[in-house]
Amino acid sequence: MAKKVGGHGPQHSVHGRKPQNIGKTIGRLFTYFAEYRWLLLLIAIFIFISTLAQVVGTSFLQIIIDDYLTPMFKEYQTGAVENIWDMELMQGFVRTLLFLAVIYLSGVISSYLYSRLLLKVSTSTLFKIRQQMFSHMERLPIRYFDTHTHGELMSHFTNDVDTLREMLSNTLAQLLVGIVTVTGTFIMMLRYSWQLTLLVIVFLAMQMFIAAKLAGRSGKYFKEQQYAIGAVNGYIEEMIEGQKVVKVFCHEAETKEGFAQRNERLCHAATAANSFSNMLMPVMGNMAHICYAVTSMVGGVMGIHGMLTLGALISFLEYSRNFSRPFSQISQLFGTILSSLAGAERIFAMLDEEPEVDDGYVTLVNARQLADGTIEEAPERTGFWAWKHPHQDGTLTYTPVKGNVEFDHVVFGYTPEKVVLNDVSLYANDGEKIAFVGSTGAGKTTITNLINRFYDVPNGKIRYDGININKIKKDDLRRSLAMVLQDTHLFTGTVKENIRYGKLDATEDEIIAAAKRANAHYFITHLPQGYDTMLTADGANLSQGQRQLLAIARAAIADPPVLILDEATSSIDTRTEALIEKGMDQLMEGRTVFVIAHRLSTIRNAQAIMVLEKGEIIERGNHATLLAQKGKYYQLYTGMFELS
Fold first, then answer.
1. Would the N or C end of the chain have less CB density within 10 A of its end CB?
2. What does 624-635 look like in DSSP terms, one character per residue?
3. Is the distance from CB of 510 to CB of 558 less than 8 angstroms?
């Protein structure tokens, strides 16, 4: 299974989602061209000129053959060689050639101009789509990332956008050129012979019927191919990240088998899709050759009976070739079109995902407390926080941020059929260190997810300093919290920039102070460039413990009212853990702290320890109280029952 972001949400694939209506997808794509309508008009004009030059140029074949070459040939046959060089005849011949050269030159210039302009429109449109995709992704709820693989999400930005680029840059121009060519050529063919035109249309109808059958078969497999690529990319990414684990447990063979299965599905879909798609061009090409041969024979008979001149027949044959060529080109590009539309559907499906809803109106502000006890908002950072609560009567109240958290009969499940927390009620007074222990899946991390409003509870209430957290704006709620997760994530950049992520306007002195508080200063100063050492690949040049220390420093510099430590010391050795506990005690002073830990020695000094089992709190108390009860916590602490 490809890696999921997070590990507590529902794990299901979206590969079964039905694609959107193709017509709707095309219409939505064209909405991105609205601001370029004048450029598109100019492009259409240049395409019309370029294509018209080709159509009109072909008609000069009749003039050259019937008005100049045929008379010259007849004079040559009669022996009147001097009449071949008749000045008036030659002047007309040269003028015709020069005029034809001007027509084709205008076509070449127009082709260059519309290609350049179309390139500008397509690249600008793709820039806008990528920007919109990334911005929308940042607004999606955590649930979306819990239910989609890394490879699937990356496929939207890479494979899907790339296939869309191919269509917008090339296929769009081909379609417009084809429409103008077919229209102009059809008119000219009727001008020469309606009988031969009817014959060409009959053959063309046969071509289109065959093409529709083949395209219908390939379209289904192209959609399967898009999904299969996402699955392969996700699996590859997961295996690259987990190479150490794979090698430690000697799972190379199983890993290769897993990849082979996914690659086989991709190979099957790609083979089927391209097999039918690649049949189109040969079939259409051979049908065009048959049509050309039959038209030549029928036209020759008509010429013998005086119904067509030689020049008219040659011009018509050239037009018949040009008439079928756009259909052949479109059929050749049909696979690209289907693949691009499938990619566009996936992009729009992501853009149509509901963004994270935030209907909160209580905000977090810097404040100061006056001598009379009243609280007022402060423009500068004071270290004293308050909830700014507007009321319906227009008044404002300011509530000090203390970190009181209360769960009132909370029921929650990531999916309706599976309840994770069942009627949970708990409280955390300000300044307390609250610890959660229990087996994996007991609901410990889910509680912290709900405090952050990564998920909203359907039943029950969560209050923060007496305020329903649904009334607090999510950004402000999360600004009042800092989290140190078990899975540390560092960004590409310097050590200094990664620590500053917790407070973007932090000074160097604040960065160093936060590092010292987390006990990270010592190892940072021994890095090659100290605080300016560049980190890449999620801090691969650091040990796991060092990465965890940087995450703690990042939380320390944010200086939040509430801390959430989700296995924050899981990757730190016992000696390092003892050193940072002193710094963490200073950091936690006066703040509410929620700790999730498997290592029970780290939570002995917690004011309240809550033992969870199957989504319910079965024990609550401090370390001494719980040991005295000789219940589940006692069993866990004495090793009679292992955490798993």
1. C
2. HHHHHHTSHHHH
3. no
Residue 552's nearest CA partner among 537, 544, 450 is 544
Q: What sign results for the dihedral spanned by CA atoms 3, 446, 138, 545?
A: negative
Contact, 182 vs 323, CB < 8 A? yes
Spatial distance between the Cα atoms of 253 and 421, rounded to a whole number of angstroms: 39
Q: Look at phi and psi of residue 385 and say left if phi exceeds 0, alpha if psi is from -120 to 50, else beta.
A: beta
| Run of H or E including 37 | helix 37-62
- 18 CB-near residues (< 8 Å, 6+ apart): none
Query: In percent, how much of the chain has pLDDT > 90?
Result: 3
Q: In this predicted model, which residue has the larger pLDDT, 177 or 641?
A: 177
Residue 11 has pLDDT above 60, yes or no: no
- 309-313 long-range contacts, CB within 8 A, separation 24+: 309/62, 309/65, 309/66, 310/65, 310/66, 310/70, 311/61, 311/62, 311/63, 311/64, 311/65, 311/66, 311/67, 311/70, 312/62, 312/66, 312/192, 312/193
Q: Which amino acid is at 606?
A: A
Of 481, 474, 451, 479, nearest in space to 463 by CA:
451
What values do phi and psi take at 567, rounded to 5? Answer: 55, 45
Q: Report angle CA 466, 138, 443 to the nearest 5 degrees.
A: 50
Query: Greatest CA separation found in the chain?
Result: 129
Q: What value does the mean pLDDT of the chain take?
A: 80
Point out the least confidently predicted range of 160-164, 337-341, 390-394, 451-455: 337-341
Identify which of 410, 404, 425 has the alpha carbon closest to the alpha carbon of residue 620. 425
Could you tell me the CA-to-CA distances from 10 to 148, 339, 348, 623 in Å, in that order? 10, 29, 23, 34
- How much is the average pLDDT of 482-500? 84
Selected residue with higher pLDDT from 543 and 101: 101
Of 140, 136, 12, which is closest to residue 454 (Cα–Cα)?
140
Please count the residues of the chain: 644
For 375-398, the pLDDT digits (tens) are: 888 888 777 888 999 988 888 889
Quick check: pTM over 0.85?
A: no
Mean pLDDT of 325-339: 70
Distance CA 97, CA 76 (A): 21
And the tokens for 460? Answer: 């029950």
Summarised one tens digit per residue, pLDDT across range 582-622 is 656 666 666 788 888 766 766 777 888 888 888 888 888 88
CA distances to 30, 129, 341 from 24, rounded to whole Å, are 10, 17, 10
Helices in 161-309 by DSSP H: which ranges?
161-166, 172-192, 194-241, 243-248, 252-304
Element at 368 (helix H, strand E): strand 363-369
Q: How far is CA 229 from CA 134, 225, 350, in A?
A: 20, 6, 17
pLDDT band at 9; cut points 50, 70, 90 = very low
Element (H, E) at 462: strand 459-464
Rounded to the nearest 5°, which phi and psi values hold at 634? -60, -45
- 533: tokens are 């050492």
**Partners of 386 in the β-ladder:** 365, 400
Q: How many CA atoms does the CB half-sphere of 260 hold within 13 Å?
A: 6
